[in-house]
Amino acid sequence: MKELIVISGKGGTGKTSLTACLATLAEQCVIADCDVDAANLHLLLSPRVHHRTPFVSGEMAVIDETRCNQCGHCQQLCRFEGISPTPPYTILPSGCEGCRVCAHFCPQQAISMVPRQCGEWYRSVSSAGPMIHARINVGAENSGKLVSLFRQQARQLAEEQQSPWLLVDGPPGLGCPVIASVTGADAVLIVTEPTLAGQHDMVRIIDLLEHFSMTGYICINRWDINPEMTRTIRQIAEQRGVSCVGLIPFDRQVVSAQLKARPVIDQPDSIAAMAIKDLWDNVHAILSTP
Ligand code: SF4
Ligand code: SF4
User: pTM above the 0.90 mark?
Assistant: First the structure.
């Protein structure tokens, strides 16, 4: 089983649309949506949920009303706006950071810490194959822990299904969730675009991959909006030993496919779809070579 992670330096580069297309082209694959903060792969792949599991991470405070005498000491100590400003004092889940200060100093021992439910994750069947995805609560952030859980579940599912491919829609940026999403994968596909910001982001991701001795490839989305910048980005990547496996042209059919909630690969006369097929052939050939 080959695990390919699709990442980009920021949102809006077409990473998720591309992942949906690759998953459709792969025919037999397991898909994991690790871009939990902006999870929208499900909008293109229409998953039917089979199993849902609460996702628990960290702790939050709870006040036992029967012991609390409303002294307000906890409210004064909390630095995170985790407790309502006026009596009756209650914990505000969106503010509580789980620091335990209030529990430690409450004179009535009325505060205890409980596991925090941050959302749910799902095991589903999508139009492109079995899929692991999630919905996290407002204010909860994607974390390396959640991404690691997803990848572990997705790998297990891929083994059960004897799937030759695991495709992961990774989180954007360079933080802990991205590191958790790329380590140990067979290859990372960096989606970039021909802008200075795209170039800058790509270089930072290549630095990260080098640090972890990971194999990376790039593809340039909407390459034809600035061919000169595309050439520059390609040169920089290739000088760093990162091959360009695809150039996807600007195509209005990408948006019309999104409006129909389908990957553009379903549009037979789309020039972007044709370029993505070539990209997949390249990736397939590279990763299938022993
Ligand atoms: S410090 Fe304890 S007793 Fe005082 S308001 Fe807070 S929870 Fe209630
Ligand atoms: S655990 Fe920390 S952040 Fe949460 S309510 Fe208590 S003092 Fe505030």
Answer: no
